[in-house]
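Hey, quick one: can you model this chain's 3D structure?
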Amino acid sequence: MKNIPLYEVRQISTLKDMLESSAELYGNETAFLVKTEEGGPYKPITFRQYYNDVNALGTALISLGLSGKRVAVISENRYEWTVAYLAVVNGTGVVVPLDKDLPVGEIKNLLLRSKADAVFYSDGKKNEVESIADELPNLKYLISMDAEESTGKVLSYRVLVNKGYELINSGDRSFLDAKIDREAMSILLFTSGTTDKAKAVMLSHKNVCSNLMDMCSMLYIDEKDVFLLVLPLHHTYACTCGFLCQIYRGSTIAFCEGLRHIAKNLKESKTTILLGVPLILEAMYKRIWDQASKDPKVLRKLKLGLKISRILRMAGIDIRKKLFRPIHENFGGAMRLFISGGAAIDPKVVQGFQDFGIHCVQGYGLTECSPIIALNRDVDYRNNAAGLPLPNVQVKIHDPNEEGIGEIIAKGPNIMLGYYENEELTRETIVNGWFHTGDLGYIDEDGFLYITGRKKNVIVTKNGKNIYPEEIEALLNRSPYIAESMVYGRENEVEGDIEVAAEIYPDMEKIKETLGTENPTEEQVYKLIEEEVYKVNKMLVLYKYVRHIEIRETEFEKTTSKKIIRKYNKQ
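Sure thing. Here's the predicted structure for all 571 residues.
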């Protein structure tokens, strides 16, 4: 399978060049589907209109004296966010995307750290941003995406865009002709680290453009595709793969109104590709089976359909779209591909969607890598692998153990410039051009990369055995009775060795349903979870057995990217 040719992609050197060529190629095609009122219809915005809006806003920003300055953007996903992003990077200065879910103290801290001269924000963040503005000496402009008029220090996005159009019409080419240094920092991103304070990652046009070309040469995406944008744009994964990639390939981006509206928005937009995280895709897959389980006849029909489909496909006949029409219709009727990233997805879910006739692939990356390092192709994939390295990215296993597992390191044009104002950490992380990911894994004989866990999470027993908590957590989380789990090592006081323990947050709805009671006792819940842990232990080698469990009553604390914060140090 290694010799399957890559898809041809057009060369782009900067995001400015990318937007210009896309406006030429796809001018009157729909770039965005937006809603001007809650629950209203989607309205199209063309590539030409988007290009003009970016140029107008960029011109207005330069007229404010923001050339070469840092400009932050903080809001929910919306059209104005995307215009602001490219209006800054394509000729104004450095864009600083911020997480809208951060508490006000952290927003202030990141605006200070980034030395932002201006900040775009929506009404949803108005109180937080305006309340700290006077404490930020560097901050000259507050730009409201929703204000009708400019008042004092607060400028209106709409007024600025109109001003930009006037300036361009009167011959102002300051933004249109702005030169881009493709190797300089143009994007400053704060990572949502699960333990340390946010690291500031510096990315260039070269980093992101190389990543766009590489990943589009591996997965086929074109102007007929519609993406529903569900993930927050301040994350590099959503930004590169769910926004910039679509502008590059001529696809349409539909804004999702919120997680509760996914099914409705999929139908309204006729989405063909959904970019998600395991949490979303696994919940969707679970819902299919939960719905079917409510009616024994439907469940039998679904299981029979899967058997028939497998037999027919062995004979080269594919009728999955017809056999599983209700499932396809639930996803809007046009869905062809799910892309999962951000964390490892259960391979059974990937296979399950494929069995229903919707291809599903996962990729792997980090903010520091713009973000993709490896990706499963639509024509060459392993459901339990992170993927194949991108064409221009080298991936190696550093210092592998006897099982071939070691730290994943990568080298290529997508690797960040470094950590902002932290040369020491940069030197520790990028050694001779190789970026040390902190993730552990191995590469198989076909070149596929597999992730086994985070280096800092590994449990090491007294006799030197390595245990990867993520591997055990993935198995535990497959249980219908376990919502979340966290595996850690603790000292067994009797034997003096390190043993595996698990903290578990149960799915009480499922437990109540199974036990047939609204008020199960602590003993009943513990017994049920204990049985599930016993089943998982049967799948593991002896030294990996979970020997101790704790049941918790609340969800684990998480980062804004929904990763569990591992605060414990129970070893």
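One thing worth noting: The first strand starts at residue 30 and ends at 34.
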